[in-house]
Structures are given as structure tokens and as C-alpha cells.
Amino acid sequence: GSVVLGTEGGAVCRFFLRRQPNDRVDYSDSTVKWDKEAQSIISKVAPGDRPALRAHVERHCRERGLRQVTPSAIFEAKPDPALLFVHKKDFVYEGHAGPVAAVDCSPFHRNLALTAGADGLARVYTLLQAAPLLEVEPDGAYQFAAAWSRHRPQVFAVGSGRGAVSVYDLGRSAHAPALVLEPPADHPAAAAAQGAGTHHR
Questions:
Q1: H or E element: which one contains 79?
Q2: Which sequence spans correspond to the domains of the chain?
Q3: Which keywords appear in this protein's UniProt record, sorted alphabetically (predicted)?
């Protein structure tokens, strides 16, 4: 499985879910003893990187006169952080020009994702390419919410900061909403928008 995330900086990324390796590490040839917590840290390192990392940490312990490897000893040895903290981001898409407020994956198409952002845009991505398939700007306001229909594969809705909900039906149009639900006049977002557009002399 995988997860699609939007960030405050506007990035849209995909992460694949992986199981941590559970293979045992042989410490019989170690020159110092490894405690259980230190062993747990090493077990999460990629198998191909473990020998060099262990040798680096054990050399540090010998030089410091330490008889046991603990988590603090591992970090004091200052190994390459990329070995300990594996970067799991697998794919980066063309992002929004501002925070991503919502991400929703299609319940019908496994490779489609919908996003909404502070740049006023809603985007439809295929998870197989970086560029969005579709980009719409419902009303120019901050887009707070986005969701695919759970009943119709080509329908999605986007909610804006002024309280409007724009419903798109890709079977009818790829750019114009099929329906726009406006907030009532006494809705806080609508009142704020109306007030912002009123000028007094």
C-alpha cells in the first residue's frame, strides 16, 4: 500500500508502506557488547549498510574505552544520518503554491488523487506521473476541502474558504463545475467576504 500526503509547504508526495526488516543480526564477531536497544536501532538499518555502520560504532566505542554499545554511543559516533533515518519519500509531484489543505484518493481508481490548496487550486493527479492531470480554480479563494464521490467515479467536490462548495462532474466538463452550492447570506464566511468587498467613504 501507499499514502499520499500534502504538506504545509505545498508539496504533494507519495510514500510506500514497508515492513521493517525483522531478520536477526549476528553479533558473535563483535568486539564490544551491544545492548538490546542498540540492536533494535541497527535492525532497522538496510542490511547492506549494517556492517559498515557496526564497524564505525564499535571503533568509536573502543577508542572511548566503552565496553557496551548503547543508543547514546551510536549517536555519539556520529554515523551518516541517512543510514539511521531512511528517507521513505518515494515520489514527489508538482506541488501547490501554498499549504495543501486536503488530499483524497479515489475510491474507484487506485492511481487517482485529488488535492485542494491555499493557492485556490484543486488538482487531480495520477500517481504515475509528476504533473497533475487536471487543475481547476473554483472561485479564487483558499480551498479548504476536497473529496471524491463515493458513488460516481467522475464526480468530486471542493470547498472554499468563503463557504462555497463546487461540484465537478468530469463526464460533463473538465473545467466548469456542474453545480456550485453558495453559502447562505448569514454564513460567517459569506458575511466576511461581503464585508471585504464593501468600501465606505
A1: none
A2: 15-84, 98-195
A3: Cytoplasm, Repeat, WD repeat
Position 22 scores a pLDDT of 53
In the three-class reduction of DSSP (H, G, I as helix; E, B as strand; rest coil), residue 132 is classed as coil
Nearest to 123 by CA among 107, 149, 104, 141: 104
* Distance in angstroms (rounded) separating the CA atoms of residues 88 and 64: 33
**At 41, is the secondary structure helix, strand, or coil?**
helix
The class that CATH gives domain 15-84 is: mainly alpha
**Residue with C-alpha cell 464585508?**
195
For residues 55-78, give the mean pLDDT. Answer: 93
Q: pTM of the predicted model, to two decimals? A: 0.64
How far is C-alpha 31 from the geometric centre of its chain's CA atoms?
41
The amino acid that residue 18 corresponds to is R
Separation of alpha carbons 9 and 35, rounded Å: 40
The percent of residues above 90 in pLDDT, for the chain, comes to 61
Which residue has cell 507519495?
14
- What is the side-by-side order of every strand in the sheet holding 155-160? 143-148, 155-160, 165-169, 179-181
- pLDDT above 60 for 20: no
CA-based end-to-end distance of the chain: 59
Name residue, grid cell 456542474.
178
